[in-house]
What does this fold into?
Amino acid sequence: MTVRTQRNRFLAAGVAVASLSLALTACGSSGSSDGGSSAPNASATVNEVKADEKLAALVPADVKSAGKVVVGTDASYAPNEFKDDNGKIVGMDVELANAIAAKLGLKADVQDSQFTAIIPGIQSNKFQLGMSSLTDNKEREQTVDLVTYFNAGSAIAVKKGNPDKINADDLCGKKIAVQTGTTQAQEITDTRNPACVKAGKPGIVNDGDKFDLQTDVTNAVVSGRDQAMMADSPVVDYAIKQSGGQLEKLGATYDSAPYGVAVAKGSALAPAVQAAVQSLIDDGTYKQILTKWGVEAGALDKSTLNGAVS
It folds into this structure.
C-alpha cells in the first residue's frame, strides 16, 4: 500500500508545516491547483455537530457511561494529524474524530501515540478508536475492524508550470525528493529504478534525494534543488496549497486505498462509528472538514465496514 503503513515516516510534520509556512511567506494562497481542492484554512468554521439520539443508542453501554472515546493518533502527519505551534493536536483526522464523537453523544479524547502502538492500544482497550491515516487492508482487518472515511494514495508534485517537463510515468534520470522511510522512497528503489534499468535508462538519481522532514522535501522542489517530489496524496495536496502557487500536482493520485477508523475487532462500537461517519457525509459536515484542510479530493460518498479488497 502506498498510504500509511507501519514504517518510520513524517517524523516532525508539525514542525514541517510551520517551517514551510515561514519559507514561503512571500506567497499567497494557491487556490484550486490540484483538480478541485480548495486552499486550506485551519481557522474556518464548521457547522456545530449535535448528538443524534438514534446513533447514540448504538453506542455500547460502557462507552456511553464513560462519556468519551479515547482516540489514538500519531500526531506527525500534516494535514491529517499534527501539532500546531501551541502543541495542540489538530488536523483533518482530529476534527473528524471530534465530529464522530459528537454525533454519538460523546467527547473525543485524542491522544498522541507512536503509530505502531495504536492497534495494540485498541486491542488492550487503551484506545477505543484509532484515527491516524490507517489504510484499510485485509491484513489489518484480521486484528481490528476498520470504518472507511477517506481515500488516499501516492502523488507527485513539481514546480508550477513543470519547467523540466517531468513525466509522471517516466522519472528515469530525474532528481526526485522523497522523505526517508516512506513508501515512495521504497517505490523508487523497488519498482521505478528497476524499471528504468530494464528499459536501458539511467535510474532516478541516488535512488531519490532523501530528507528526514517532509518540509525539506517540499522546499527542495521549490528551491530547484530537485525536479519533483513524491509523497502521500493528502500531504502533496496540502503542500501545494501551502506553497502559494509555487507547486502543482503532476498527473493523478495513484495506488489509492481508503483510510479506516480502527475499532476493536467485533466491537458494537464499529457500526455506531460507521453510522456516524455516514451521517456526517450526508449532512455536509464531512465535506466542510475536508475542505477546511484542503483535502476534499479524497472524499468518499459512502463509509463501509471492513471494505478492503487487498
Observations:
- The first helix runs from residue 13 to 23.
- The beta strands are 68-73, 82-83, 89-90, 107-112, 129-130, 144-159, 176-179, 209-211, 228-232, 247-264.
